[in-house]
């Protein structure tokens, strides 16, 4: 999906009466799974591949397992059928109904006993307070929220500006507390956020101009929703598509501007699994093919340098598949099988002139920011490295610095897979 694609909400009619009739007649009793002290969140940074059996399989497992899981699919972040010019083409369509059926089929492929689209979108917000749809939700053991525009979930499930739970959202919240799994990808992960949920923006413009509350037509402007999303995840701010779109800068700026001390910035096709969500036993694990950046701003200091915003003292950790993170102690625990990396190669860190993978750079490289950090932790040649922005006027630079407690782990003995407690700062470039 184009990183700057922004389709606005509409209010035209979509015929869901038939679907609601079916739901009223077929809603089943909820699966009798043992209640836990809080359920599981599985939040994916977008770009979830059909073949990611680790993530899809874990959602099915947490929903009761193969042959037992019943997954409700919510895709209200997508446009409704009436706004999709390809709605009639099953091979090209991308709308709430089409996408709901697509994910339902995928969950059945991965062993769910049943998977159903929950028929709510921005043209039928009344369905979110329908007894028939609530009965459908009550029959499910897990839920998956698809991508699109997270603000549409506010419109359809939180009564818009009122920001109050619809009956369906209240039911999902109860199911999660009782042990169900709630998963989502891209906007479906972002909507789990608490206060100050990001609504758009690019890293360079964020560093240059700062953030503002709201939802803006300019997709490069860093905006946020003060009331947040569903508030299911409260261990820190969330961001998605991080390495693919170079969003590390906007994640750090938003946290600093809004007073948050921690950000979890998720790469594509990668998830954080939050077990016992919302309880004192909450724990986090990374699943997938890339990683999760954790920015710790407890000791960060903002300042003005050359008339521009700057920050120092941000701790940066990067977790990959199987790693655990304790949100209470702020500690990284590398997965079994990863060994501490004793840097031995005196290899210089490659120059990086596009730290945030600018949309304007045709030669840019995704995962640029984390790539520089990983290279630094794997070399004995340097204790610091810098990376600049592709944009100038002004240019910014990122300083990466090894601390005394910086650690790295490896799976191949030579390159960094996971690291903890690198220190970073961002400032206007000299000259």
Automatic annotation (TrEMBL):
Signal peptide interval: 1-29
Pfam families in UniProt: Peptidase_S51
Keyword annotations from UniProtKB, A to Z: Hydrolase, Protease, Serine protease, Signal
Gene3D superfamilies xref list: 3.40.50.880
CDD domains referenced in this protein's UniProt entry, alphabetically: GAT1_cyanophycinase
Protein family per UniProt: Belongs to the peptidase S51 family.
Protein name, as recorded: Cyanophycinase
